[in-house]
Design goal:
- With 534 residues, the chain is an alpha/beta fold.
- Strands 1, 2, 3, 4, 5, 6 and 18 form a seven-stranded mixed beta sheet that branches.
């Protein structure tokens, strides 16, 4: 059963395309209907990038800096991905491993973490404007035209078309490469597939229930049924594979209540959705302290960027599994389910009289910002898609690279954050509820990401690079999937695209020595050297 059911000429022609947001305020939506463009246009460039993430901005800016005409097509109204949508407590890993455009972006912000999303988007837009990269907002991919193993053009739902020599998929979902017929995987591989230890089904140690919580509607009575959000499926073997993806949420930006907008009660609010959370709250031993941190939760609340914390929090566990393969309209339904779930969660904690007053008072101390996400009432405009499709190429990044047991010889940048994957389900174990899927394992040092993990197999496509949904396993992607790394890989993808055009070769045949030399010249860090201690 699907989890959604369980949870109920180039630059001269630029001006002829719509190069700025053009529709009325769509409100808090993923997808909204647009009429076809009255006079569809065709744009021809050297490099077409699809996806407004940091990986997309990095690729387009770098291609332009290398003298290539580039265009960035964006699904919605913003650039910067999650960095412009609330995720500003940036997971840097080792700061010294971040170079090139990613470091330039963070330096221009004036701080490397805790900045405002609006400021981040302004810097992204400035980088694109300075590089003279046109951005085509509200361009949703409809079809990929492909001929003799090469992409010829992208056609969009509004009727416009972009032809290019090289293409970059910079989406969080891998939408371009999927439509181009490139191999990919969704979900968790079994540990046995690549000889891994941390992949697959696992009863988590972290972000787990802090004490025993009964899962049944009538405590102790399995016949009464399970509380919402708990799977009735039997336990599976540790490390087995499935098609589950880690949970998504919105990275709320909170301010003090007296300075902000009130926390909203969403349409469709259903108190029963939070019955398990209430059980968790009222089952707490008298000495237990809800501290609203990662350690104890029940959610992490603070001024600024707020993340998930614990086994029942802002992550909509089980609600994301259909997203990677869903069409746009189905994603809109999933998006709205996440809005209802998370806004309802906060409303419940702040207002429901069954919630301990100390918890209610703490949540009521916060509000939504008046000067952030104005078009969506202070709520982040983009859902945190932590994992979508992942390409399958000739080189698959695994936990062996993350742990330094195997080193990619063709580095195009470093990743350094721990292997971090959020919960995928909740299950019953010996009469109590357990959260399943969270994986938190550190890496010993920054490690190289292989160039071959950015390009498809040559027989599948010769002129496509991927800067976000790179070829990797679920657990390795848990480390790679950080916003600065996406910008690093975007810059490297843009560089490789330009070199492939200059050499007249498929992306798989780009001379690595030439690529490496150019990346180093542009400030990329390709090999980890422990910085001297002060």
């Amino acid at each position: 059963m699907r989890w959604s059911l369980v949870w109920s000429a180039c630059l001269a022609s630029v001006a002829t395309l719509v190069a700025s947001p053009s529709t009325p305020n769509p409100g808090l939506r993923y997808f909204y209907e647009l009429p076809p463009t009255a006079s569809p246009q065709t744009l021809r460039v050297d490099v077409c990038v699809y996806g407004g993430t940091p990986g997309g901005v990095g690729a387009a800016v770098q291609a332009s800096r290398m003298g290539k005409s580039a265009a960035l097509a964006v699904f919605r109204r913003h650039v910067g991905g999650l960095t412009s949508a609330g995720l500003t407590a940036v997971d840097l890993g080792r700061r010294e491993s971040i170079g090139g455009l990613a470091a330039e972006f963070l330096n221009r912000l004036g701080r490397w973490s805790g900045f405002r999303s609006a400021d981040a988007e302004n810097v992204f837009r400035a980088l694109l404007a300075e590089a003279k990269v046109p951005v085509y907002y509200e361009h949703r991919l409809a079809r990929v035209e492909k001929r003799a193993g090469r992409i010829v053009a992208l056609e969009f739902e509004n009727g416009n078309r972009i032809e290019a020599k090289m293409f970059v998929d910079a989406t969080y979902e891998g939408d371009l490469f999927a439509r181009a017929g490139v191999s990919y995987h969704v979900g968790r591989e079994a540990n046995a597939t690549y000889g891994e230890t941390y992949n697959g089904y696992n009863l988590a140690l972290m972000h787990q229930f802090r004490f025993a919580v009964d899962p049944y509607r009538t405590p102790g009575d399995p016949a009464s049924g399970l509380l919402p959000g708990i799977s009735a499926e039997p336990l599976r073997a540790q490390g087995s594979g499935d098609n589950f993806v880690q949970a998504y949420n919105f990275r709320m930006w909170l301010v003090s209540a007296d300075e902000g907008l009130p926390l909203p009660q969403p349409a469709g609010y259903n108190r029963d959705t939070y019955a398990l959370l209430l059980r968790y709250l009222v089952t707490a031993p008298p000495e237990f302290e809800w501290d609203f941190t990662y350690r104890n939760g029940p959610i992490k609340l603070n001024l600024g960027d707020c993340n998930n914390a614990g086994p029942f929090s802002t992550d909509f566990i089980g609600g994301s599994h259909d997203w990677p393969e869903a069409g746009y309209r189905e994603r809109e339904k999933i998006f709205q389910a996440h809005v209802t779930y998370q806004q309802g969660l906060v409303w419940f904690l702040a207002n429901d009289e069954a919630v301990p007053e100390k918890v209610r008072a703490r949540v009521r101390a916060f509000g939504l910002p008046k000067d952030q996400f104005v078009e969506t009432g202070g709520w982040p405009h983009e859902l945190y898609v932590r994992e979508g499709r992942r390409m399958r190429s000739d080189y698959i990044m695994t936990e062996h690279e993350c742990m330094g047991r195997r080193v990619a010889p063709d580095s195009v940048g470093l990743a350094s954050y721990g292997m971090d994957s959020h919960h995928t389900s909740r299950v019953v174990v010996d009469g109590v509820v357990k959260a399943e899927g969270d994986a938190q394992f550190g890496v010993p040092a920054p490690y190289p990401v292989s160039y071959r993990s950015l390009v498809p197999r040559q027989k599948e496509c010769e002129n496509l690079l991927v800067s976000v949904c790179v070829s990797s396993t679920h657990i390795a992607y848990g480390s790679i999937r950080m916003e600065p790394v996406f910008m690093i890989l975007g810059q490297s993808a843009g560089t490789a695209a330009a070199l492939a055009i200059d050499a007249g070769v498929p992306v798989q045949q780009v001379d690595y020595a030439s690529l490496r030399e150019r990346l180093l010249r542009d400030g990329q860090i390709l090999v980890w050297s422990t910085p001297p201690q002060p």
